[in-house]
Amino acid sequence: xxxxxxxxxxxxxxxxxxxxxxxxxxxxxxxxxxxxxxxxxxxxxxxxxxxxxxxxxxxxxxxxxxxxxxxxxxxxxxxxxxxxxxxxxxxxxxxxxxxxxxxxxxxxxxxxxxxxxxxxxxxxxxxxxxxxxxxxxxxxxxxxxxxxxxxxxxxxxxxxxxxxxxxxxxxxxxxxxxxxxxxxxxxxxxxxxxxxxxxxxxxxxxxxxxxxxxxxxxxxxxxxxxxxxxxxxxxxxxxxxxxxxxxxxxxxxxxxxxxxxxxxxxxxxxxxxxxxxxxxxxxxxxxxxxxxxxxxxxxxxxxxxxxxxxxxxxxxxxxxxxxxxxxxxxxxxxxxxxxxxxxxxxxxxxxxxxxxxxxxxxxxxxxxxxxxxxxxxxxxxxxxxxxxxxxxxxxxxxxxxxxxxxxxxxx
Length: 411
Prior knowledge:
Layout: E1 6-13, E2 18-25, H1 34-41, H2 43-48, E3 53-56, H3 59-63, E4 75-79, H4 87-98, E5 102-108, E6 124-128, H5 134-145, E7 154-158, H6 163-171, E8 176-177, H7 195-207, H8 214-221, H9 225-235, H10 248-270, H11 277-294, H12 303-312, H13 315-319, H14 323-327, H15 334-342, H16 348-358, H17 362-371, H18 379-397
Parallel strand pairs: 2-3, 3-4, 4-5, 5-6, 6-7, 7-8
Antiparallel strand pairs: 1-2, 1-8
């Protein structure tokens, strides 16, 4: 069991490509050791998923060369705005750069902080755009980049919560973007689901009905070749430790309805394939949230329902469709619908817990977990387990063949 909590939040480029993750650690009395502990346990590399990780640092960590344990380029060290660039700090910055590491200035604002004297040594600068207007943000950008020409640091706009904010910073020439806006894009009135997804959601309703037998389920699945391949690929994956499953009927007999429902839900999310990094992260986050909540099972809370509640709580963003419209296509329990639509009932707290944790609001998440009867010391492990489980599950779900020319139009 880990003694630290962490969460990752994606950072995207101007084309929507994933550039890396910010990894936040829970602040405790030993909080500044969270990075080293996570690195030594292998959690840091698991969570960053081969992408660069932006990590906050303290003066002590920087001077003690704490980040030298990481592979060069894997940890982008974010310098706090109040960091004094004295001789010890300047020497530490030089050592980290010589090690091959990259640096960023964090939380740059309207009033210049002492750390800005280190701009010549950093690759990135993060600017919080929540409460600033376009003119003020533009002045901050000019102050940071003036005189550097093509060697100016790249700019990251953080805390983007609304479309209007994103449009402003995009127009100002920012290079990267981060915020809750990318976890809940506006639904599109004309959005449609892939046909396989509609079939999968119908199957989810059927699989919950004990009056429907396995043969009836198999008959429905077999009418869609893409869905058949997806589900067989999932069942054969290492994620559930099986090999050689050759038919849907065999898969159903081997894994049972509960596991079948879970993997069907993964197939639904994975159907929203896109080359856009934002879309890919939305799918990943939806499945991760489902797995995170599933681990909160106990008492009146069923693990299978928790998984579906977690996953469906983000499907409106994944499919760009209003959640009520999505839920009209599948039969979930009344308790699940209450949690998703009204935030009431026995599963509502689970969604609130996930949202708090994913925003790095660890204290609030811990309080909710405690009220749910969950040991807060397990939460960090639940989160990292959700990440590793999802990587394996989606690796199988997305490994589908491209359609042949004569099957154009099938998705």
